[in-house]
Amino acid sequence: MLLQNIHNDAIGNFRIIGFIEGISYLVLLFIAMPMKYMMGIAIATKIVGMAHGVLFIIFIALLMLAAQKHKFSMKDSVIFFIASLIPFGTFVTDKRLNRLEDKI
């Protein structure tokens, strides 16, 4: 499981926020947006969108921190960033982060 073997480190914190941010993105896309456009409940996207936006900013900050501390390659940093823009992307890149975390 994702949260089972995470160390208290920059990569571990990045993995945790990546998981939470990924969930918030899916909730925004597949729950809040249909509620807004199919049911007329606009407040759903306002609340979930704000939460996701804050989580995304934290995600980017932790990406930069982990990349600097553990000397991620530019390729890895770009992959992690692009993955955050794609639904389910942060879950797919978690394996790569797990390998990086095991090296420390």
Topology:
Layout lengths: L9 H30 L3 H28 L3 H11 L4 H4 L1 H9 L2
Helix pairs in contact: 1-2, 1-5, 2-3
Describe the protein in words.
- With 104 residues, the protein is an all-alpha fold.
- It has five helices and no strands.
Q: In a nutshell, what does this entry contain?
A:
With 104 residues, the protein is an all-alpha fold. It contains 5 helices and no strands.
Q: How many H/I helical runs?
A: 5
Shape field: elongated
Number of domains: 1
Low-confidence stretches: none
How would a crystallographer describe the biggest sheet? none
Kindly report the average pLDDT value: 90
Question: Compute the gyration radius: what is it?
Answer: 15 Å
Helical percentage? over 70%
User: What structural class should be given to the helix and strand makeup?
Assistant: mainly alpha
Strand content: under 5%
Question: Order of helices and strands, N to C?
Answer: HHHHH
Oligomer: single chain
How far apart are the termini? 19 Å
Number of strands: 0
Q: Keywords, please?
A:
104 residues, 5 helices
